[in-house]
Amino acid sequence: MALLNILHFPDPKLRTVAKPVTVFDDILKQLVADMFETMYEAPGIGLAATQVDRHIRLLVMDVSDKGDNPRCLINPEIVDSQGEEEMDEGCLSIPGFYETVKRANHIRVRAQNTDGEFFEFEAEGLESVCIQHEMDHLEGKLFVDYISSLKRNRIRSKLLKLKKQKMSA
Ligand code: K1U
Ligand code: ZN
After folding, report:
1. Ligand 1 centroid – CA 24 distance (Å)
2. Is the pLDDT of residue 76 over 90?
3. Which of 52, 67, 113, 139 is most buried, by the most CB atoms less than 10 A from its CB?
4. pLDDT value for 72
C-alpha cells in the first residue's frame, strides 16, 4: 500500500470533472486500498479520487467513530434527496478551514463496488453530508464554492502563503 499526495486548494487540478470508472481490475482495487490508507492517515472521514489527482468517479469514506466502517463508492449517483441541514465541513484539500454548508440531510445513493456490482442505500446526517461533499469533488467543486468570494479569496491567499513558507523552509 502507499500514501498518496493530497492536492491543496487552489490547485486547478481540483477543478477537473472526473470520468466514470469502466474497468474494475486489480489496478482499481490497489488505488482504493491506497486511498483508504491515505484517508485514515490524514486523518479524514472521506477522500475523493480527484483529491489524489486521479480523475475517475471513485470515493472512499468512513464516518464511524472507531474508523471500522470503510465504504467505497464507484460511479455514485444520488437517486433521491430530502430535507436540508447545515453542518460545519472541513476538507483535506483545504487544511485548517471549516465552513457551514447547507445540504440535503437524507439521500438515497446508487453506486458500484470494486467488482462493478451495483448497490443502493440510504444515508443521513454526517454520512449524507460526507457523500455529497465527496461527490462535489468528483465534479471539481469545493466547499469554499458555497461561501462568499471574499472569504474564499482570503482562504486562497492564506493557503498560498503557507505553501510559499513551506517551500522556502
Ligand atoms: O473530502 C475531504 O476532504 C475529507 C473531509 C470530509 C468531510 C468532513 C466534514 C464534513 C464533510 C466532509 C474530511 O475528512 S475533513 C477532516 C475531518 O472532518 C475529520 C478528521 C478527523 C476526525 C474526524 C473528522
Ligand atoms: Zn474535501
Report:
1. 27
2. yes
3. 52
4. 98
CA distance 167 to 18: 29
- Condensed to tens digits (0 to 9), the pLDDT of residues 41-69 reads 999 999 999 999 999 999 999 999 999 99
- Residues 125 and 111: their CA atoms lie apart, in Å, by 19
CB-based contact 76:135 (threshold 8 Å): yes
- Does the CB atom of residue 73 touch ligand 1 within 6 A? no
Given a cut of 90, is residue 121 above it in pLDDT? yes
Instruction: Judge whether 134 counts as a catalytic residue.
Output: yes
Contact residues for 27 (Cβ-Cβ < 8 A; gap 6+): none
Please spell the DSSP secondary structure of 52-117, one letter per residue. GT--BSEEEE--SSSS---EEEEEEEEEEEE--EEEEE--TTSTT--EEEEE-SEEEEEEE-TTS-
- C-alpha to C-alpha distance for 159 and 151, rounded to whole angstroms: 12
Strand partners, 119: 111
Q: Tell which residue, 122, 130, 131, 12, has the closest CA to residue 74.
A: 131
Q: Is 39 in the pocket of ligand 1 (CB under 6 A)?
A: no
Cell of 72: 467505497
Q: Give the pLDDT confidence score for residue 36 in this predicted structure.
A: 98
